[in-house]
Amino acid sequence: MASFAKAAFTLATVLAVGWALSAHAQEYNEYDPSAVTPGSIPNFPFRDCNTTNGAYRLAPVWRPSGSNTYCFKIQVSQDALSCTGACCSADLHKIEFNVSSSCLVAGASVVATVNGVRTRVGATLDKAPAGPVGSAVLRLTQLGLDTTTAQDAEVCLTLKTNRGGQGCTTLEQLCSSPGFPAGTCTAAMFDVACDCCPVSQAGQALPPPPPVIPPVLRPCDVCIAATIVPPANDVRPYRYDSATCAAI
Ligand SMILES: *[C@@H]1O[C@H](CO)[C@@H](O)[C@H](O)[C@H]1NC(C)=O
Ligand SMILES: *[C@@H]1O[C@H](CO)[C@@H](O)[C@H](O)[C@H]1NC(C)=O
Fold first, then answer.
1. Alpha helices (H) in 29-170, listed in sequence order
2. Which of the ligands is closest to the CA of residue 137?
3. Residue 138 Cα, ligand 2 centroid: separation in angstroms?
4. According to the UniProt entry, where is the signal peptide (predicted)?
5. Beta bridge partners of 223
6. What is the spatial distance between Cα 140 and Cα 144, in angstroms, rounded to a whole number?
7. Can you give the pTM of this predicted structure?
8. 53, 82, 89: residue to mutate for ligand 1 pocket, most atoms within 8 A of CB
9. Which residues pair with 138 in a beta bridge?
10. Distance 98 CA to ligand 2 centre (A)
11. Could you tell me which of 118, 115, 108, 167 has the C-alpha nearest to residue 140?
12. What does each C-alpha distance from 232 to 177, 225, 240 come to in angstroms?
């Protein structure tokens, strides 16, 4: 009896611990490096998902917004070129940017806002577990945007160094997009299930074209000054007086 009770207790303990472990693994699956094979997915977003299918993309140009802050606009398109099936109507759960691992500095951080409101969960700079050595992402998760609320939503990132002043402060430093001009950021937009992850880019606005100085058109004070002088050989002299002249 005593040994039966002990065995039952042991079994219950094993079950409880096993359950707790699996619940833990489930909850943190996304971030658990042991759940994926390192280096198994060579390309951003370093996940097994469809990078061309989805309603959400970055508008092509980001804007600087002062003090190491940069803002991106989200565009929603549900046309046949952008998405098919469930990816067209799925909510926008998470955005990941392809970033330079040199920005992963202890104490350095990124504050993210959506339409001026801080994201529920802080933005995280992280290694990409399934990506090649040196790959890293900036993750903004639990966004809770849908195809209506995401349209034109503005996502701003404030890049903060650590106390020692180390860390990235510009998108030229943060964003890794080989083949694109410096400061171009590549992002993937995920649904909750992470099946759809359309990848898009946003770059720096081109410098404004040199200003075209319009010719100054102002009324002239004197345009032509003329004096009428009788010719030397005055064949048929005729003289106008002012009144006749004005009447012609
Ligand atoms: C991704 O989705 C597109 C439809 O938008 C489809 O044509 C393509 O086959 C999908 N790719 C994969 C790898 O599932
Ligand atoms: C993502 O960044 C890595 C460097 O970490 C780079 O090799 C890769 O080409 C980038 N991918 C995209 C799609 O920009």
1. none
2. 2
3. 13
4. 1-25
5. none
6. 11
7. 0.74
8. 53
9. 97, 125
10. 6
11. 118
12. 82, 21, 18
- The string of pLDDT tens digits covering residues 34-62 is 667 888 999 999 999 999 999 999 999 99
Closest CA to 46 of 183, 171, 202, 188: 188
Q: Is the pLDDT of residue 65 over 80?
A: yes
- Which ranges constitute the DSSP H helices of 155-238? 171-174
Q: What's residue 57's pLDDT? A: 98
Look at residue 243 in the predicted model and tell me its pLDDT: 79
**If you measure from the C-alpha of residue 93 to the centroid of ligand 1, how many angstroms do you get, rounded to a whole number?**
20
Q: Give CA–CA dist 96/123, Å, rounded.
A: 10
The contacts found for 29-33 with CB under 8 angstroms, 24 or more apart, are 30/194, 31/126, 31/129, 32/129, 33/127, 33/129
Q: Whose CA is nearest to atom 2 of ligand 2?
A: 176
Q: Which residues line ligand 2 (CB under 6 A)?
A: 44, 98, 134-135, 176-178, 186
Range of lowest pLDDT (33-42, 43-52, 161-170, 180-189): 33-42
Q: Which two tokens stand for residue 41?
A: 């997915």
C-alpha Rg value of the chain to the nearest Å: 34
